[in-house]
Design brief:
Layout: H1 8-31, H2 36-58, H3 64-67, H4 69-91, H5 93-117, H6 122-143, H7 157-171, H8 177-198
Helix pairs in contact: 1-2, 1-4, 1-5, 2-4, 2-6, 5-6, 5-7, 5-8, 6-7, 7-8
Length: 211
Amino acid sequence: MQPPEPSSALVVLELLGIFVFAISGALVAVRKELDLFGLLVLAGTTGLGGGFLRDVLIGAVPPAALADWRYLLVPVGAGVLTFWWHPAIGRMERTVTVFDAFGLGLFCVTGALKAVDYGLGPVPAALMGMVTGIGGGMARDLLAGRVPEIFRGELYATPALAGAFIAVMLDRTDLPLLVVALAGGGLCIVWRLLAIWRHWQAPMPKGPASV
């Protein structure tokens, strides 16, 4: 049986998350002094990479990024906007970071619930939610020639995994979808914002590596 189509509200929220993620990718391209094409590639990769990878892994083909023209138009629009007005957008980066946290919370929930719809169990579905949230940023950093942020102590993947797991478990109850999304996404958002505010870092190895 074909899984149900996502609601229009969830699609709108997902597109908003793609827009914010795409801006963060475009800002990296500006700082790397890439041309317009490179900027659009990084914007699209950041906004769509996680969802694209999730859809391929769970068998939701063709991926939503290719099946719905809006998923391609949004990151292009975000990239062009950043190309022309990057000085002003760069000054708003703290605000963009906050919206990025909201995008992460949204993506980890929608990604996990889509994986559930395609028959995955709780743990694999939660992992797919995390992949949806962090995949685009990892691909962006690799294309930009830098170690992905999530490997440099940023508490990013852990909140996404926790939020996705909460959403998957609550989805097994009779709670409304809105409550499930608010609980899972809210946990991820609050954890991520607290990590930014309090400068929390994931454990890092100490001392020199043995030779």
